[in-house]
Amino acid sequence: MTNLQQTLDLLHQSGVVRPQDLKAQGIAPTSLYQLYRQGKVIRTSRGIYTLADTDFTEHHSLVEICKRVPHGCICLLSALHFHTLGTQNPFEVWLAIDRKARRPRVAYPPLRVLRFSGAALHEGIEEHQIEGVTVRVYSIAKTVADCFKYRNKIGLDVALEALRACRTERRCTHQELWHYAQINRVTHVMKPYLEAVG
User: Fold this and answer.
1) Which of 57, 159, 184, 191 is 20 to 30 A from 32 (CA-CA)?
2) Both 47 and 64 in a single domain?
3) Which domain holds residue 147?
């Protein structure tokens, strides 16, 4: 099998490819550039390539970020939008990374980085396959608790809207919300609102 065919096969399998992904598979990255010149592959942003006939989803920006920062997790406003919870549609991708991790250098799509640690970083992660890429997103209950924790950054109104929506639509349980409120140490903040929405 030629390098070109191997590259095409990898693109069909994983949806989005970086030159270093080819190197890891023992494929010369020049095959990617050759396919790009032939118009079979397009570059969606710096160092990110996909097949020219790919149907992009509304979550393509999340795919690009998760491909570049695989240890990160989609959080807060981007997670709300992903879960169709509330009316948020951020122009930036909100991404949680470890407190000690190096800040990702990404020019596009716009990125808002938050630093989490311990259980607040590792718990509540869901993995979704989008365009052939594993996208890590915090669960609905975790996202709502995060919204209360970061209410000074995003606004208490956003946190309340998310809480009302998830309880009205029965998207998570009271116990799940309380669990993540404890992890985020926001039980005293969330308790009156949780009691109000039932």
Assistant:
1) 57
2) no
3) 60-197
CA 74 from centroid of its chain's CA atoms: 3
Token reading at 85: 């919870």
Query: Which of 99-108, 120-129, 171-180 has the lowest average pLDDT?
Result: 99-108
**pLDDT-derived band of residue 56, with 50, 70 and 90 as boundaries?**
low
- Single pTM value for the model: 0.73
CA distance 53 to 64: 17
**Same domain? 110 vs 177:** yes
Question: Do 42 and 115 share a structural domain?
Answer: no
- Residue 126 sits at the vertex; the CA angle it makes with 124 and 130, to the nearest 5 degrees, is 155
Number of domains in the chain: 2
Between β-strands 93-98 and 111-116, what pairing exists: parallel, antiparallel or unpaired?
parallel
Phi, psi of 153 (to 5 degrees): -85, -40
Q: How far is CA 169 from CA 30, 73, 138, 140, 182, in A?
A: 50, 24, 18, 12, 23
